Amino acid sequence: MPAPLVDTLRGIVGAPHVLTGADGAPYIVDGRTPDAVVLPGTKEEVAAVLGAAAESSVPVLAWGGGTSMSVGAPPPRLGVVLVLRRLNKLLEHEPGDLTATAEAGITMAALQGELGKRGQWLSLDPAQAEKATLGGVLSSNAAGPRRHLYGTCRDQLIGLTVITAAGATVKGGGKVVKNVAGYDLPKLFVGAFGTLGVIVEATVKLRPLPDQDRLVIARFGSLKEAGVAARTLMASDLLPSAIDLLDGEALHALGHGDSQGAALLMGVDGIPEQVDWQCAEVERFLRPQGLAEVRVLDGAERDGAWRARSGLGHGAVPDTAAVMRWTVLPAQVAEVMEQGAAVAQRAGLHAALAAHAGVGVVEAVLAAGGRTNAAALAGVLAEWRALVRAAGGQALIESAPLAAKEQVPVWDDPGPSLRVMQRIKSQLDPNGLLNPGRFVGGI
Amino acid sequence: MAHETLTARPAAPLTLHGHDVEGVHRCVHCGLCLPYCPTFSLLGTEMDSPRGRIFLVKSLAEGRIALGDATVSHLDLCLGCRACETVCPSGVPYGQLIEAARAEVERQRPGGPLRRLFRWMNFALLLPHPKLLGLAAAGLRFYQASGLQRLARATGLLKLLPAPLADWEPLLPTLPPPAERMPLPELTHAEGERRARVGMLTGCIQQVAFGSQNRATTRVLAKNGCEVVAPRAQTCCGALHAHAGEHDLAVGLAKRTIEAFEAAKVGVVIVNTSGCGAHMKAYGTLLSGDPAWRERAAAFASTVRDLAEFLATEPLRGPLGPVNRTVTYHDPCHIVHGQKISRQPRALLAQIPGLKLVPLREADWCCGSAGTYNLTQPEMAHRLQERKVGHIRETGAEAVVTANPGCIIQIAQGLEAVGAKVKVLHIAEVLDEAYRNAK
Amino acid sequence: MAGELDPARKTTLRRELEGLLGKGAVLSEPDELLVYESDGLTLFRALADFVVFPTSASEVSAVVKLANRESLPFVARGAGTGLSGGCLPAEGGVVISLMRMNRVLEVDYDNQIAVVEPGLVNLHLSWAVGPKGFYYAPDPSSQQACTVGGNIANNSGGPHTLKYGVTVNHVLGLEVVLPDGEIMWLGGRTRESQGYDMAGLFVGSEGTFGIATKIIVRILKQPQAVKTVLAVFDRIEQASEAVSAVIARGLIPAAMEMIDQTTIVAVEDAFGCGFPRDAAAALLIELDGLQHGMEAQAERVMAACRDCGAREVRAARDEAERQLLWKGRKSAFGAYGRISPAYMVMDGVIPRTRLPQVLTRVNEIAAAHGLRVGNVFHAGDGNLHPNILYDPRIPGEEARVVAAGGEILKVCAEVGGSISGEHGIGLEKMDYMPLIFSEADLAFMRQLYQAFNPRGLCNPGKIFPSRKACGEGGIAYRPHPLEEKGLAQRF
User: Fold this and answer.
1) Class of domain A90-208
2) Which fold has domain C225-327?
3) pTM of the entire predicted model
């Protein structure tokens, strides 16, 4: 990295906000240390940083809370890590319009805290809310159990301000919940992992906080039974906010007892009359499906249980070696989970699996008891991918040791659509400076 | 430049060779009519949609296009079912516009001598003259009853006929014996307390082919306290003429019809055929260009009632016996769209004990009969007929009830062609059966 | 441009197209092309060279490849109910009608997915899955006629977007024919796809990124119960506050529709639905969801309306009453048509809380141009439809309507809204894009255009303002048609 660039960067953001050498250690990705870590304080500074990096042809990796940094192929080179943490303000909140605009570096927890003061929330519940930032959540399309009823980033985002690879400030969407003027920039940036531009501000749709919110934990004797119960629940008139399916290992890892059986974690929210009724109705509904035990949690207990659940892929399982995210059809979830667990077992490894059963997204945590045998690990990951692909789904390695990532591709083969993605990339980042080499198809 | 904007229109109302088509300006081009138009639903081409046809009429009237083959074919494909009018939010008088268009097509393209002869025979000779129609019917009856028809059909002799005639032959209704073709008595007394003195249109084809339905109608009206007057002086109401573009003949027949019923001094004129009822209710518009007749026609038109419309104003007089059948109801276009009547026939059927009424999918879709459409556009008529027959069979009903001879002929022929044993009944016949079963 | 093809070439091409699609699937006679010169907005007309009716993705692809070979522009068309001129063949070429690709291909009730062809009428999809208790949520007011493919192009909404979102929130995947003729899948059946959300980007691209030939959508279970409340107010501010008050009580109704006094009077004149003629606004609020607790929710809504000073609050007791309450709102268009020879539907979006201020401005603008305006407002999402009533036979009236429309859009932009909530930019609003987008914003969008449509043959002349620099971004300069006619000015 050319020294003049470091000086320029210091000039833009101020010397205390540029880290080099060992100071950049917290920002290592897949063993690569960044050339420099920059922490701008305003979107103008972000633009200037990107402009400077572009001039020197240095790649830039945008960094929010770092909670999804493991997702991606190992970077060929880590140039500038651009940390958005200091852009952390809630800029506007219009409760009457149910919209809010915030800087990208605000953590989800801080954002929800602010919104909660006026009785509203952004209906996204990704993991690690204390660390994950709004921009990062959008860039990685992170979601949580309540995506079942409330949707994902695509459904909440209405406006975006981004800095392009060349350092230009571009806005897309707007501040109103319904808007079809021009192309849907916001959609393009969701899940783009910072490869098309750096998000600096986002406008989102909000909801009123529900009067009540409970968690119903229903235990079953087997994954199969729980899976059938989930499907019948989906087909019913009931409207849970979440239907998560956990296998025995996952239950055990989250402290819900031994690793036998399986459980459904259901969110029930709304006005008191409906919450009371639904909780009772869920129990009545599940009883003939092999329901072994049911608990209803509220308040702090509920929050704790959900927080633990979202921590499954972030170290809750002892000796976590790798985490994969599978997307299949809801009806296939239980079966694919069973098959996945069997594959791990055959390889002498442990797997804990949990799924957002209503939308078909499975989190598969691979644990290696004791030694980490890279080959065995890679073997399971590859077999998992094959199993999911055979079911018509998609498999993504969210985290894995570098050695495994070098053997098993992080992303699926995108097929012909890669050509269009490449054309988009080459238009918006012709010099390939934004998080290069880590995305789908090597973009 | 490829773009243009609309220029300001002249102040005078828009006409198509004398026919008022100002109604085209009501169309705001919203397109809501498209999926309700049977021809658009089957063909997918804008010119075969109401919006497209309105645009063609407008373009013709404005002199933007001449009447070419393509335009004529798209106008000809219109069923005239007016389903579009029912859903149009802007109240475009489509029926009036398409009739104006048809008249213009006829005026510009009367066709070759054979066609003109055929049309003259039908519209000028047979339909308006009951006695001549009766003679023709007798001939047809002979053709059918003597076994000639069976022979012709069996030996394939029909294939020797020129194309349109061969297609039409199967549509010939089976005529009843002469006794059933006798004209209705001029006066039928009411049973029980007299509620009203009503006139009844006996119709042209209706009287000849379905005289039994007319008699059933009379009986049902009588049972409900009506004194029924069927003036001998009446004639074809002219609906078929107007739909086929024979404007002048239609006007003449309208006047004769009005005169016949005025002379009968009735409060209400009952019509048991859909096209006639709709057309007669629009006599005011038809004759609006004639100052001497304008108000007279409008006054007459306001006394016209569809049979079901009339009977449903009060509960049916009992006793009604049971008719233990599952039936479904097909809405003739000119009753449901032309007159906005769909609740009443079903309300009447609901009063018959033992009768089970099941809903018919696309009940208000044209069956393809559309006046003489099944003669002039056999292919489209056939596709619609098949669709209708398919839906009828889906219901599993033993009978389909409707209220128009054209529909009855078309649907019956379609059911027969697929070997379905579903009866086709006029609503008057079902009510009549209920009354007979009460004894 | 249409008419630039010499007759001999046109005849050859016609024969080639017929060879690809069949004889009855190609139109090229001027008399038959005439009806395709407009969509639902008759202000603009443009004649194509051909209109074709493919029945499969491979036929669409073949036509697009032929167009590429001949450098002919092309545009897809559904039912032609659009209100921004989006499917007009602005520069001649080929109109590709999707009306003969109108089937429901597959429904997977277990996974709540349907796969349909683009020419399928929106409402027909809900009818198809209705018997099993499902429906397709995006329900634009024209849903009886508009097609799913058209909804994809415009990212259509409808009254229920507050609770259920717009079209893109229900699309999982698309098979598209790209502007060069290649057939490609964007997204798929599952809820997530790796890589860029290209299906999401395609929705709302107004036919400039290609032609969708198969559409995979989510279908939802029909709600257990539906409850409708009608509230009548003496002042617009009260109605607007009521909307916020309902939300403040923790409820997201399925729909909230508002009509203003001009509309109420029109509806009463035309149909007599029982609204008090001197009311300033009527608010229709619809709740849906679980049966249990529905009454409690309705009570909250009514209380909120009363607290904001509603003169009258009514809740429907059964389906028949519900239809009656909705009749007034649904008859608005028809009512305008009966009291005015013509009307132009505008489509602006504003933050809901700014409605009273914007409505005042809208009425002022209309009055200043000597016109009447009736407003229908999707109160749930801020989508405002001013309907400017006018008589096209009066010289100069049309120009004033266009001018008034432009000023209304400016107001929407000024209060932080947008210039299109549902109808799209198309031809109608392209020159207003600079009201809400900077040069940098537009340049970014042009780059996306380049990624998909580098030759600019796929629905050219839409969305982007006419530019003075020829050839830049593949979109040539062309004065806006209204400018040419002296009906509009560039600002």
Assistant:
1) alpha beta
2) Alpha-Beta Plaits (3.30.70)
3) 0.91
